[in-house]
Amino acid sequence: MDGPQVLCGFRTKFRVDELLVAKTPAWSWSVRPAQTTLGCGILSLNRYAAQFGEVTAAEMAELAELVRKIERAVQSAFGYDIINYLMLMMVDHQVHFHVVPRYAGSRQFAGLDWLDHGWPAFPALAEQQHGQRPEILTLVREELRAACAG
Prior knowledge:
By secondary structure, this protein is α+β, with helices and mostly antiparallel strands. It has one domain (about 5-150): HIT family, subunit A (2-Layer Sandwich), CATH 3.30.428. Helices cover about 35% and strands about 20% of the residues. The chain has helices at about 5-15, 55-80, 135-150; strands spanning about 20-25, 25-30, 40-45, 80-85, 95-100, 105-110, 110-115. It has a five-stranded antiparallel β-sheet with strand order 1-2-3-5-4. It has a two-stranded antiparallel ribbon with strand order 6-7. Helix 2 (about 55-80) crosses helix 3 (about 135-150).
């Protein structure tokens, strides 16, 4: 596959446009369809790049600003204990991070209990709490959008 096809497939797989929380010219932050922990996200480059070294200085500056926004919003919305940024790219060859808020204890959101099954070790990335229920993902997205605006 060529770059535009990879990018399109990535954005479709992770439902980037549908679950978008915030966007800059270079980066998108969206809710991760599989919620490993409450508030998991995908932070992805808006153009095709297969390697982190391809990111420009201007894009890196935007990344720093968006990371600050993410951390403030997720803290405000869900009160994480620590946050992990994982750049794995073993399956999806597009520059992106899995943003995984970490919690020492359970959280309540949308009438549901949310746990961090990997705490205090590596996040349990295969975990999909509460399935990929569209209504729950929409509520998470809206909570994070509101926290960004507040």
